[in-house]
Design goal:
By secondary structure, the protein is mainly alpha-helical. The chain has five helices and no strands. Helix 1 runs antiparallel to helix 3 and helix 3 crosses helix 4. The longest helix has 48 residues. The mean pLDDT is 79.
């Protein structure tokens, strides 16, 4: 007869997820897409005045080839500007969202309570961190 072995029990190192906490990854992806939409639309609306300048130049140029080249250059620059704005906006809002929800979930797990103080603490820490990372604020703090 063979001795029956007892199955080993696995012990989880992670605490159970509290009900009501937000999924960090889903919120980050939503933040990235929202930032991309915002950044792209902001750059697209800002480039309207630059398009008007190109139209003024087109009226003063009699050569059709030169007009075509100017329009193509303007469209390429606009595409690059809008794409750059989308990428930067997505990264900024994605990082902000990831930091906020990561800190909120960390506070909820460490404290064992899901309440408004987790949101306030995560929001304050995230706002302070990103406020110090801004170029104008960083120069201000380094000067004084």
């Amino acid at each position: 007869m063979e001795a029956q072995e007892k199955p080993e029990e696995t012990v989880s190192q992670h605490s159970p997820k509290l009900a009501g906490t937000v999924n960090w990854g889903t919120a980050t992806v939503a933040g990235v897409f929202a930032g991309m939409l915002y950044g792209g639309s902001k750059e697209a609306s800002a480039s309207v005045s630059k398009d008007a300048e190109v139209m003024l130049k087109l009226g003063s140029t009699p050569d059709k080839r030169e007009q075509y080249r100017m329009m193509r250059d303007a469209m390429e620059k606009r595409f690059i500007r809008v794409t750059r704005g989308s990428i930067i906006g997505g990264v900024r809002l994605g990082l902000f969202t990831a930091t906020f929800y990561g800190l909120q979930n960390l506070l909820a797990e460490k404290r064992g309570v899901l309440d408004v103080f987790n949101i306030v603490g995560a929001g304050s820490a995230t706002a302070a961190t990103f406020g110090l990372l801004c170029k104008s604020h960083l120069l201000f703090w380094l000067m004084y």
